[in-house]
TrEMBL record:
Source organism, top-level taxon: Bacteria
Sequence intervals crossing the membrane: 44-62
Location of the region described as Disordered in the Swiss-Prot/TrEMBL record: 202-235
PANTHER family to which the protein is assigned, alphabetical: MUREIN HYDROLASE ACTIVATOR ENVC, PEPTIDASE-RELATED
CDD domains cross-referenced by the UniProt entry: M23_peptidase
Composition skew (Polar residues), residue ranges: 204-235
Record key words, sorted: Membrane, Signal, Transmembrane, Transmembrane helix
Protein name: Peptidoglycan DD-metalloendopeptidase family protein
Presence of the UniProt keyword Glycoprotein in the record: no
InterPro entries: Cell_wall_metabolism_enzyme (IPR050570), Dup_hybrid_motif (IPR011055), G5_dom (IPR011098), M23ase_b-sheet_dom (IPR016047)
Domain named G5: residues: 235-315
Length: 444
């Protein structure tokens, strides 16, 4: 059967007319570049998508029939051969419904042969079909079967890229750029199923062995300074999340100078405690990765407690604490004016101990005199403890250190006795501040 001139004109008009475009849904933020995401047209894909020529959404993918059937149909229009399709009920029914929808006729002839590898399937790929295109900044990214399918694809892509922010009290997501769905008419070879469209938008560089699709032209989106292996989606999703956080408020440390402590020594008087604060924070994510945040409100729950620390300033005291010079604490004569012997001033304390009792340095320092003292102290040791403080140990039976020796607190410096002007065995212990004798009790 030959086609009439009128039908030929209809077909020519369908083949040459530009697709009609109608905008539907739209999302807007900021712009970016776009590249059409489409399948290349290897044999198996074109044969399979030929069966999707349906006015509506009842398409069934039957690419497997190409491999399973040895029988094919040669399609003619007005006596002119235009293409080859698989000879099976689904394909024939689809071809008939397409022809009826466009008011044209075609004729077919069955042939029993295997389709050769280089068969030009592109002859039948240009049949126009109702579809929907997903656009970014007015540039097409991918074609799919309907506007409903395209919107579902965008919802799937948005959910995949936005991620799950569990702690947020309020979350809004939007595409970056002007993303919209447009109803259109396009050749069947450019249309992909919604699941394929989702994969193309999420993984533009991937290869789908099921369809024989090679790397998409959308891989150009990843060119430039990025490595070829970088996987960037064709669309980007920005997420704004409002979260409430409890943060710790640090405490301050206050130092109080103490001349009784060695220089540099510290003693905590009051422990510090951190406070707490609730913050409302706006977080911004791009494709699930946080890119920025800023604090909206702050509410102090508990105030921090300052830590108070004593800071030693006495350069001659290593540890800051003083010790008793002997094991015995028996004081036989205190510091100050005596009530006997004419009321003489006693510049130290006398500690009653047997001869040979070990005597210890009451703090760190340097020995400035060790040996016999002709002023009545007998065998003595004088130690410079720094910051104008010196300690004196008199009436020893013998000394165990020498001039210039550095001694540590608790170190044995000699042994008690009754040398010099002493009426019995004891230790005479003095503390001098800048050369003046002071009560040694605070330094024991």
């Amino acid at each position: 059967m030959k086609w009439t001139a009128a039908l030929q004109a209809v077909k020519t008009k369908l083949a040459t007319a530009r697709p009609k475009v109608k905008a539907t849904h739209r999302w807007k933020t900021t712009g970016t570049s776009t590249t059409l995401l489409k399948f290349k047209s290897p044999r198996l894909f074109i044969a399979g998508t030929t069966s999707l020529l349906v006015i509506g959404s009842g398409a069934v993918l039957i690419s497997s029939h190409v491999q399973a059937s040895k029988s094919c149909l040669q399609i003619y229009r007005d006596g002119q051969y235009i293409g080859l399709v698989p000879n099976n009920p689904e394909t024939v029914d689809t071809m008939n419904r397409v022809a009826a929808g466009y008011g044209v006729q075609f004729e077919s002839t069955p042939v029993y042969t295997q389709v050769r590898e280089n068969y030009p399937w592109q002859r039948v790929e240009s049949f126009p079909t109702a579809a929907a295109v997903i656009e970014l900044n007015n540039q097409p990214l991918v074609y799919t079967t309907s506007t409903e399918s395209a919107n579902q694809v965008l919802n799937n892509v948005k959910q995949a890229l936005a991620g799950d922010i569990k702690s947020a009290s309020h979350v809004t997501t939007s595409f970056v750029g002007d993303v919209k769905v447009v109803a259109t008419t396009i050749g069947i070879a450019d249309i992909v199923q919604p699941s394929d469209a989702t994969r193309l938008l999420l993984h533009p560089q991937s290869t789908d062995p099921m369809s024989g699709r090679a790397s998409s032209p959308a891989a150009q989106l990843n060119s430039g300074s990025h490595q070829a292996t970088t996987q960037r989606p064709a669309l980007s999703v920005q997420t704004h999340a409002t979260v409430t956080k409890t943060v710790s408020l640090p405490y301050h440390v206050k130092y109080v100078k103490d001349s009784q402590l060695a220089k540099g020594d510290k003693k905590v008087v009051t422990d510090g405690k951190c406070g707490t604060q609730k913050e409302t924070v706006s977080e911004i994510y791009l494709n699930g990765q946080q890119t920025a945040e800023h604090v909206l409100t702050k509410d102090t729950v508990t105030q921090p407690v300052d830590e108070v620390v004593k800071l030693g300033t006495n350069a001659g005291v290593a540890s800051g604490g003083w010790i008793w010079p002997t094991d015995s604490h028996l004081i036989t004569s205190p510091f100050g004016y005596r009530s006997f012997g004419g009321g003489q001033f006693h510049p130290g304390i006398d500690i009653g101990v047997p001869t040979g009792t070990t005597i210890h340095a009451t703090n760190d320092g340097t020995v400035i005199s060790a040996g016999w003292n002709s002023g009545g102290y007998g065998n003595w040791v004088e130690i410079d403890n720094g910051s104008g403080i010196t300690t004196v140990f008199g009436h020893m039976s013998r000394v165990a250190v020498h001039n210039g020796e550095v001694v540590s607190k608790g170190e044995v410096i000699g042994y008690s006795g009754e040398s010099g002007e002493a009426t019995g065995p004891h230790l005479h212990y003095e503390v001098r501040m800048n050369g003046t004798a002071v009560n040694p009790m605070p330094y024991t």
